[in-house]
Amino acid sequence: MDRESELFQCGHRACGGCGPALAAKLILKGTGPNTIVVASTGCMEVFSTPYPETAWGVPWIHSLFENAAAVASGIESSLKKQGRDEHVVCICGDGATFDIGVLCISGAFERGHDITYICYDNEAYMNTGIQRSGATPYDANTTTSPAGKCSTGNKRPKKDMPAILAAHGASYVATASMAYPNDLIRKVQRAVNTPGPNYIQVHAPCCTGWGFDGSQTMKIGRLAVETGLWVNFEMIDGEVEHVRKVANRKPVEEYLEVQKRFRHLFRPKKNEEEIAKIQAIADHNAGAFAVDRN
Amino acid sequence: MMEILEGSHAVAEAVKRCRPEVIAAYPITPQTHIVEALASMVADCELDADYICVESEFSALSACLGASAAGSRVYSATTSQGLALMFEVCFNVAGMRQPVVMTIANRAMGAPLNIWNDQQDSISLRDAGWMQFYAEDNQEANDLHYIAYKVAEDHDVLLPAMVCFDGFILTHTYEPVDIPTLEEVDAFLPPYKPVNILDAKNPMSLGMYATPDYYMEFRYEVEEAMKRARKVFADVGAEFGETFGRDYSGLVEGYRLEDAEIALVAMGSICGTVKDAIDEMREEGKKVGLLKIRSFRPFPSEEIKAALAGVSKVAVLDKNISLGQKGAVALEVKDALYGTGTEVLDYIVALGGRDIRKRDIRAVADLAEKGIGDQFYGLRTEVL
What we know:
heterodimer; B: seven-stranded mixed β-sheet; EC 1.2.7.1 (chain B)
């Protein structure tokens, strides 16, 4: 595809190797041009729309941090009255989705608006300088869940947003990763063509916040899936389907040791106990979603 | 057609005739009768609007913002705590230049919790970039909605507007109201013609972030639009008068001010009581008049200065207080009269629904005559 035909254009101000920037490019390949994007405040808004520049080749609106789903509700309602057929797609970070925006999201899903809500999940507040969110994984070091003499980092596991939104009656809920581009594009296509509110949560590694070289973004994204710490699946009417199987699941150490946010688990000495707890999370995921390919 | 209507229903009838495509609202006392009436109109196919039952006032105004950005005329209504929950969105709607019209059924702010009337809620949003119009009675509450949409959507303005009317005192009171026909309103208020909208055929980005290199200019442009709104309001108000026989060309309105020595200044339903009290005082030979402020934003400083020229004392009845200072209306009237030498005295009255009667208005005028002011009027000292 040539540069001009990209709906999410290059020249924006994201870090080299930014997972969310790649996710945005892929998401728009899935939605196509007949789409209105609703953004939350966050990294993506800031790096893609510094006035008077924009990277968006589709209509795009940002209002506030926490109200994308409500703004999208209004847009969808207006389009319906006008007889217009654009897809209404929220693209929001995990802070906006898991934490501050939950009220608006819950309302929009309960009301059944025909919108697709996509969370680019980089697992912390990156725009403000790496603070924990409800999406931050267990033991990750962030500036508000710092590892210290009596702390191993973030004390809580990730909130299960896909289950929460499936419980709202969303007919299509999926997880995806920017490291599996075709799978992500296909899921976005499916979501925007499924009536009602739908949700996709996209794993989008942040090289700056997680602490890895920008050339390794795809590798990190794949390791999350290959270790079982991130599971790519679809939920149709609340039932899990199409789980990405993993042959010879890798130990979580391989994912953890290449990221600064987990460095405290390895230095000054390896914290076997905590790494075992994270392995247990991966093993639980593998069991719950039948990840392992025998 | 003249009908005996509850204030809320008079407003709902006005909103129906303005033909909003999208209504998003959350129930809150004393606004509820408006949104219930609109829901019934939609359910009975009397009003062809999409009615979004949102989960909070925050989402109500957010949904209005989205629908407006997509090109629809929109409507919401709220009060007090609900308006406070919208605080963040209010600034956003104005900054994004969406001509949303919202009714405020004025109510006190907690704590302590109080559902009754004062004007602290909308006054506290005076800096948000919304126009604010205050109605004296249910006829004016009805009429100001047609005017508000026409002013807000004028391409020289493109700012949101609050139509404020006093909770319970007007919302729940039956009065005769002359309701124009749908055809008459259609002729006065044409369909909304947006400037920039979300449209896949013509993609553009709305609500981008602005660095220090650009931010100030956005704020300046809102301020310039506010300034232009003064003239637009006067023109639209005059046009309304020519069409419907009720003139709203004034951002302020005087009552027996011509030879007045003392002028009372007020906004909203209290003006009716003030007029009756003035009639009594005039009969007794006291030269007292009223200046009613209809538009608090934009603030009509020049009109106030002109209307109060020749008055020696001004007594402002504030149904709000900027705690740590004075009532907001008095402060602004004082600014308008700066340099004229006219004394401006402030009276904080009727907070949280405390009744205020003719005798209280007369007592305030007496205090003003003696130069005693800048105080709460009508405090129950025995409970302090």
